[in-house]
Amino acid sequence: MDGILNILKPPGMTSHDVVAFIRRLMDGGKTGHTGTLDPGAAGVLPVCVGRATRVIQFLPGDKEYRVEITFGRATSTGDAFGEVVYRGDAAALTSGALEEALRAFMGEIMQVPPMTSAVRHQGKKLYELARQGIEVKRQPRRVHIYSLRLVRMDRTGTPHPRALVDVACSAGTYIRALCTDLGQLLGCGAYMSFLLRTRAGVFSLDEALTLEEVQEFARQGRLSGKLVSLEQALEHLPPIYVRPGAVDRVKSGSPLYWPGVATAPDFLQEGQLVRLCAGRAVLAVARSVVDPERPGYYQFKPVRVLV
């Protein structure tokens, strides 16, 4: 089987645990997820199966979350599982002040990866160093926050009010770091008390399958019908349709030259990722480059052959 399962990860499992669960149902076939979700978090976790594992890096990386933020405290890990490292009082925090603070994080921002992340430092993942009690200096990374919406605020007037916030952001954004930075800006401290991923690329929460549902579909022999195809998953890439005589060339990983193109979008940019198609099948993901022998025309160099 080849395709992508839209899994609803429950809290308490690691993303690796979910992948291992799916792999057992697939009798040990190739599986991999498209982006780690914290063990304590829940929500959308796309799991690629079979040939779909080859396209993980090409899938849309934008994410959407609903996060619960608790104010008046900060923790060592930025979530509910760390030690309290700061105690404040957020009784004076209002929804208006919170919304104003949220606006400061809109757009392109620099964010320091938390020590609990999988970012590598000198070959080791940060969370591995954190488990040894080691903290290292991390370089800020550029991320993009598309929207921040305050859903509601509870326990206002108490030292530790909570808020639900919807976040839409680019790949690589750490929501716990966003919560920590928000608490610092407000001067009262804050941490991520719960996280729900509601969307990952084209995969949404309302279409996600529980592990129990996946197991039952596998028992009934119906799991293949729940897979999102490679063609659907790569719909965000412009399609280049290949003439029949050039299909074998693409399959071998050779560049596709303009005479081998049947149809292509009117507007392309140099260096743009595209999908090379034969009918409904995606043969490869390729990159457009200017053909040095035919100025004004592109050739398409496969970066990942899928057949």
Automatic annotation (TrEMBL):
<dbReference type="InterPro" id="IPR032819">
    <property type="entry name" value="TruB_C"/>
</dbReference>
<comment type="similarity">
    <text>Belongs to the pseudouridine synthase TruB family. Type 1 subfamily.</text>
</comment>
<feature type="domain" description="Pseudouridine synthase II N-terminal">
    <location>
        <begin position="23"/>
        <end position="175"/>
    </location>
</feature>
<dbReference type="GO" id="GO:1990481">
    <property type="term" value="P:mRNA pseudouridine synthesis"/>
</dbReference>
<feature type="domain" description="tRNA pseudouridylate synthase B C-terminal">
    <location>
        <begin position="176"/>
        <end position="231"/>
    </location>
</feature>
<feature type="active site" description="Nucleophile">
    <location>
        <position position="38"/>
    </location>
</feature>
<comment type="function">
    <text>Responsible for synthesis of pseudouridine from uracil-55 in the psi GC loop of transfer RNAs.</text>
</comment>
<dbReference type="InterPro" id="IPR020103">
    <property type="entry name" value="PsdUridine_synth_cat_dom_sf"/>
</dbReference>
<dbReference type="Pfam" id="PF01509">
    <property type="entry name" value="TruB_N"/>
</dbReference>
<dbReference type="InterPro" id="IPR015947">
    <property type="entry name" value="PUA-like_sf"/>
</dbReference>
<dbReference type="Pfam" id="PF16198">
    <property type="entry name" value="TruB_C_2"/>
</dbReference>
<protein>
    <recommendedName>
        <fullName>tRNA pseudouridine synthase B</fullName>
        <ecNumber>5.4.99.25</ecNumber>
    </recommendedName>
</protein>
<keyword id="KW-0819">tRNA processing</keyword>
<dbReference type="InterPro" id="IPR002501">
    <property type="entry name" value="PsdUridine_synth_N"/>
</dbReference>
<dbReference type="GO" id="GO:0003723">
    <property type="term" value="F:RNA binding"/>
</dbReference>
<keyword id="KW-0413">Isomerase</keyword>
<dbReference type="GO" id="GO:0031119">
    <property type="term" value="P:tRNA pseudouridine synthesis"/>
</dbReference>
<dbReference type="InterPro" id="IPR014780">
    <property type="entry name" value="tRNA_psdUridine_synth_TruB"/>
</dbReference>
<dbReference type="GO" id="GO:0160148">
    <property type="term" value="F:tRNA pseudouridine(55) synthase activity"/>
</dbReference>
<dbReference type="InterPro" id="IPR036974">
    <property type="entry name" value="PUA_sf"/>
</dbReference>
